[in-house]
């Protein structure tokens, strides 16, 4: 992974809730694969009681009306903090912050995208968006799952792993992590990649099942 220039957000390639390469022109690049992409299931998924239970809660998160999220992405010596909310099927609001750089705020409503760096909102065109539910779609394809207090430990390999950490080779890539579950919903997911980037991610979800109001901002 490469760090961005001083005063810019670093280049982080993680498929969680997040931004497309052109939309965040200051330097965030996220995996743009759909959570429905067939490539996610190219390796046999885990079997057993724990694997079935994880798939059940992951599928429920894919189908939920929305949630709030907070997270941290560490990669290449850089750290990005992310906060926001998602409302199904296609509304996303997020703010991304890195040390030494002003926050970048984004709103996505269907095919419309807006970005604010500073005080003015501007429409963004010509970029693809990432479905934030891609994370939960990837968990469905976990190749190893074991129960632990409050949740599950999981392993993803191959193309399934690139749904969580893109930019790594589809072959030979491994992601290991844990999921916390409460009342049938995922409240936290933490994982790290085994590739040279050593990317680590931790996201917490709250108000799962709600649909936060996300509206288009006034633009210049």
What does this structure look like?
The protein is mainly beta. The protein has a single domain, classed as outer membrane lipoprotein receptor (LolB), chain A (Clam). Helices cover 10% and strands 36% of the residues. It has helices at 49-63, 134-139; strands at 66-75, 78-87, 91-98, 104-109, 112-116, 121-124, 144-148, 151-157, 174-182, 185-193, 200-206. The chain has an eleven-stranded antiparallel sheet. A hairpin with a 5-residue loop joins strand 3 and strand 4. It is globular. Mean pLDDT is 78; it is low at 1-41.
Q: What is the gist of this entry?
A:
With 220 residues, this protein is mainly β. It is built from two helices and eleven strands. It has helices at 49-63, 134-139, and strands at 66-75, 78-87, 91-98, 104-109, 112-116, 121-124, 144-148, 151-157, 174-182, 185-193, 200-206.
User: Uncertain regions: pLDDT < 50 for 5+ in a row?
Assistant: 1-41
- The number of helices is 2
Mean pLDDT, all residues: 78
- Percent of residues in helices: under 10%
The CATH architecture can be named as Clam
The strands making up the biggest β-sheet line up spatially as 6-5-4-3-2-1-11-10-9-8-7
Percentage beta strand: 35-45%
Shape: globular
Number of domains: 1
């Amino acid at each position: 992974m490469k760090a961005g220039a001083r005063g810019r957000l670093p280049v982080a390639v993680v498929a969680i809730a997040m931004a497309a390469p052109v939309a965040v022109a200051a330097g965030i690049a996220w995996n743009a694969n759909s959570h429905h992409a067939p490539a996610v299931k190219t390796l046999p998924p885990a079997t057993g009681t724990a694997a079935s239970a994880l798939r059940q809660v992951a599928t429920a998160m894919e189908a939920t009306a929305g949630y709030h999220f907070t997270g941290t992405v560490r990669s290449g010596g850089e750290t990005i903090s992310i906060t926001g909310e998602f409302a199904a099927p296609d509304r996303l609001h997020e703010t991304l912050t890195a040390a030494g750089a002003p926050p970048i705020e984004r709103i996505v409503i269907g095919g419309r995208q807006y970005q604010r760096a500073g005080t003015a909102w501007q429409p963004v065109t010509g970029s693809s968006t990432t479905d934030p539910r891609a994370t939960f779609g990837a968990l469905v394809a976990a190749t190893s799952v074991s129960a632990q207090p409050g949740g599950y430990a999981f392993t993803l390999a191959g193309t399934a792993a690139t749904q969580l950490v893109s930019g790594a080779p589809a072959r030979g890539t491994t992601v290991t992590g844990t999921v916390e579950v409460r009342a049938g919903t995922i409240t936290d997911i933490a994982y790290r990649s085994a590739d040279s980037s050593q990317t680590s991610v931790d996201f917490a979800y709250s108000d799962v099942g709600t649909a936060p109001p996300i509206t288009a901002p006034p633009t210049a």
